[in-house]
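> example.struct
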């Protein structure tokens, strides 16, 4: 392990020494590919036994969605969990109070959102320092990450945490690269692009592919991609998820300092201790999770507004709705009646491919 760590350090040092320009792009791309391979080796080392060292904390996934609290020690993650969920997570003035993963549940707009208070990470977590590997492995299973920052300490904490998460293959507030990549048996590397490229050329692409022992592939770019984008696509294990930067302890800074922080994108100011702006944070979590509520209407009864079915806005057809209620419902499905903003008239008779919207009411008619 120490040899791999040394190799990582040597490559990072060489990258820091190398000037970034067109002449060095090929060399830097090769170094980045080597670094990605070494990181994968250290984060998921081969194991002869069942469990790998890259596993996270054993917390059963529950509720409609999962949100993870990530941050350095003593930034107020446990206090925030206590206030939002009523779950007890030990709070103290010393660092590393939380040593394991503490789950809680937020009940909001009829949904149940599982909130995980993860132990504080330290610089070097992506390389296995502290319990960083477990913390970030569990963070990869979340639908959204809250990076909790201390308003008193410098915003450099934000960059350090982003670096740790990026090193573990978590891409924050980004979409997967719009790039085609297909391995083939022969024909060499076929590189095409529909846009002008300022970062990648055929030689750099061949060098990166060669590092992964890929000698035959079709690669097509639909945007101005970087070497990092190509490596992400080849690795194929990156997680793309929304992230909110929760700046805590705003009661301890001035209004002028708060205005400076306000320029941060994806930012939400709070004071967990004084319960300032927790409603605003919950609204933002709901927005970033991209969830919708669909109400059921049994035949002859009024809609059940107390217990909605929660769906992702990306998977919200009538078929998704049926599968969420019971996996056998799709087999018995005849048609559905829909009231709400997705219906052209009230009610509208629809098939299982109909896309639902927030607060629609659905009645399922089964085959006789």
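> example.seq
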């Amino acid at each position: 392990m120490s040899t791999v760590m040394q190799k990582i350090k040597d490559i990072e040092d060489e990258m820091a020494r190398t000037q970034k320009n067109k002449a060095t792009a090929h060399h830097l791309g090769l170094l980045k590919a080597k670094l990605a391979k070494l990181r994968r080796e250290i984060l998921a080392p081969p194991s002869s036994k069942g469990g790998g060292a890259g596993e996270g904390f054993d917390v059963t996934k529950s509720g409609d969605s999962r949100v993870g609290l990530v941050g350095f020690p003593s930034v107020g993650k446990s206090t925030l969990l206590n206030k939002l969920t009523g779950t007890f997570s030990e709070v103290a003035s010393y660092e590393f109070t939380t040593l394991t993963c503490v789950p809680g549940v937020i009940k909001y707009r009829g949904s149940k959102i599982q909130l995980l208070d993860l132990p504080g990470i330290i610089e070097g977590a992506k390389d296995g320092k502290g319990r960083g590997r477990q913390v970030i492995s569990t963070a990869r299973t979340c639908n959204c990450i809250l990076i909790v920052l201390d308003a008193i300490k410098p915003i450099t904490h934000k960059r350090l945490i982003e670096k740790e998460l990026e090193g573990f293959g978590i891409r924050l507030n980004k979409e997967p690269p719009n790039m085609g990549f297909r391995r083939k048996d022969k024909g060499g590397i076929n590189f095409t692009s529909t846009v002008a490229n300022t970062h990648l050329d055929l030689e750099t692409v061949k060098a990166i592919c060669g590092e992964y022992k890929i000698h035959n592939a079709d690669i097509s770019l639909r945007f101005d991609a970087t070497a990092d984008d190509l490596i992400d696509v080849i690795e194929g294990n990156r997680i793309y998820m929304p992230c909110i930067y929760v700046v805590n302890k705003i009661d301890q800074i001035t209004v002028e300092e708060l205005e400076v922080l306000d320029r941060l994108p994806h930012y939400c100011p709070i004071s967990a201790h004084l319960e300032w702006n927790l409603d605003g944070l919950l609204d933002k979590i709901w927005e970033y999770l991209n969830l919708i509520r669909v109400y059921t209407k049994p035949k002859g009864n009024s809609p059940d507004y107390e217990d909605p079915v929660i769906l992702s806005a990306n998977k919200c057809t009538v078929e998704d709705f049926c599968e969420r209620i019971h996996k056998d419902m799709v087999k018995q499905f005849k048609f559905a009646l829909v009231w709400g903003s997705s219906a052209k008239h009230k009610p509208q008779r629809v098939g299982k491919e109909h896309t639902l919207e927030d607060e629609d009411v659905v009645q399922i008619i089964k085959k006789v």
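> remarks
The domain at 292-366 is CATH 3.10.20.30 (Ubiquitin-like (UB roll)).
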